[in-house]
Predict the structure of Dihydrofolate synthase/folylpolyglutamate synthase.
Amino acid sequence: MSGSDVILERLMSLHPKVIDLSLDRMHRILAALGNPERKIPPVIHLAGTNGKGSTQAMIRAGLESAGLKVHAYTSPHLARFHERIRLAGELIPEPLLAEMLEECEVANGGLPITFFEITTAAAFLAFSRVEADYTLLEVGLGGRLDATNVVPDPRLTVITPISIDHTQYLGDTLEAIAGEKAGIIKRHVPCIVAKQLPGAREVIEKRADSLGAPLKIHGQEWTSYREGDALIYQDEHGLMDLPLPVLPGPHQYDNAGTAIAALRELGFGRIEAKAAVTETEWPARMQRLKHGPLVEAAKGCELWLDGGHNPAGGEAVAKTLAAMPKRPTFLVCGMINTKDVVGYMRPLVPVAESLIAISIPNEPNTLPAEETAEAARRAGLPVEIAADAQEAVQKIAAAHPEARILICGSLYLAGQVLKDNG
C-alpha cells in the first residue's frame, strides 16, 4: 500500500456520511490552507448528469493541442486515485499526492469533513503550486453545493445534458436537479449549455438571466451533428467539417459539440476543434479491450467496457450498440445500489440477447447480483448470475464464440475490470 493510500484510508473515517452536500466545511479547510482555490489557473467548471468526463477530456485535448498546460480534476477514479488529479497534463505523482493529502489532513485538524471535500481541497492545493494555463474542474455531484463550487470567478462554465439521477440528494424532478446543476453559473461568466430537455433548459436560462451570465445553448447559438463520415459543427463564426469523434457512440457528437463550443468561447479554432475530436482518450466509455486476461477469456469475442450507470447512460449505450456492425451482443452487468437499475436496463433490451448479473468486487455499495438479475427480468432481459466478470465472460464465450460482450453498469465495476485486466 502506497503512502497516499494509507492517508486516503484515514480520511475516509472523518465523516459518517459519504455524501453530505454543503460548502461550509470546504470554506473552512480552504481558509486554513490559505485559499488555494483563488490561486489556480483560469477555471473551466463542468456540471451535468451525463457526458462531463468525455466533454472535459475533449476540451483538454483541444487545449493541449495548442501547446497549453492543463490541470484537470475528475471523479471517481477507475484504477488509481491519482487519476482524479492531472497536473499540467500528467497524473499527480505519488510523493506530491501524499504531501498534499498530509497538508490537508493537518489543516483540517480532525474535524468532520467528507472524503470528497478533503481530497478536492488537496487538488486545489496541488493546482495552486504547479503552473498551467487552464484548470478543468468537474463537479462531483450536483453543482450548487458541490465541493468544487468554491471558485469565485471561473473563466467559463459548461453544463452537459441533465437527466434524472441521484434523486436522494438533488431532488426528484428534472427541474429540481437542473437547479442544482445550474448552481455553478456565476455572475457575468459565459456558460456553454449542451442539448437539454425543455424543463432543464428553462431552469438554466432563468438562473443565467438573474446573474447576467451569457449563454451559448445547443440548437440556438451552436449545433453539432453527424453528416456521413463527418462531424458538422456550426455557430455564429461559421461551419466546420471535422472528423468523427474517436470516442464511439452517437452521444459523443453532442459531447464533441459542447467541447468545441467551449473552445470557441475561449478563442480557439479549427485546429483545436479537430484535436478535441481526434486526440481524446477517455477510458471506460465504450472502450474496446484488446489485451489482458479478460480478453484471453473472451476467446475471440469482441470485449467492450462502459461505465454508464443511469437511464440516460443506458440510452447512450443502446444507441452506440445499435450503430455498430450487427453482432449478437451479451451484457455483463454490475451496479451500485443507489441507481435506477430497471431504468438503465430498459433501453438495452432491443440490442442485447441476454445479461449476466454480477456483484462489483470490493465495493461496499454494490447491488447484489441477485437483485441486479431481478431488475433485468423486470426490464425484459433473459438473465443469469455469475461470480465475477471473468466467469461471466467465459460463459458467454463458450456458448457464443462470435459474440460481442459488453461489461457495463458502473464506473466502479469498470475500474475493477481495468485493474483485473492489467
Q: What stands out?
A: Residues 19 and 114 are 7 Å apart (CA to CA). The first strand starts at residue 43 and ends at 47. The radius of gyration is 21 Å. The chain is about 40% helix and 15% strand.
